[in-house]
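Suppose a colleague, Dr. K., hands you the sequence of a protein chain of 173 amino acids and asks what its three-dimensional shape might be. Before reaching for any lab equipment, you can write down a predicted structure in token form. Begin with the sequence itself:
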Amino acid sequence: MELPEVEHENHPLVLPVSVTMSILAVLVACVTVLGHRAHTEELSREIQAASRWTQYQAKSIRQNEAENTSDIVALVASLDKEKGESLKRKYEAKVQHYTSDKSDVSKEAKDLEAERDRAAHKADRFDGGENLIEIGLVICSITLLAKKKFFWFSGMAVAAAGLAVALTGFLLH
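The predicted structure, expressed as tokens, is then:
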């Protein structure tokens, strides 16, 4: 069975608009990938920060246990002064160790959260740019139906705005 041949009107806008739409489709694909990668980075940093906060919490618990043990040692130290002083120094050192470790881990977690926030802002820019480029693509496609240059130029303008928004994602550091 053969398909009937359809006569296409040779309108001067068909070729340039089709090329424009093809270019916009490629741009949408590129910006979409950038958005997905930024979201992946955001999630990765979120997981890493949560892991650091879990570490911080564990060190806080250990510090609290060391402080409690130190208090008990101080009470019992009167029975054996030499051993009591030795244990007291041991647990005071542990408390200092956990206190300094906690501040390091806290700083790491806060840094990771800042990186996560930057990645989220980048992803938002890429997503916004993607949406505008897609809208521009759709508006350009209306040109093929309406045969009006207004839609072609409007679609390109909206897509250009989308590309500009997407490019600002690279400026966020």
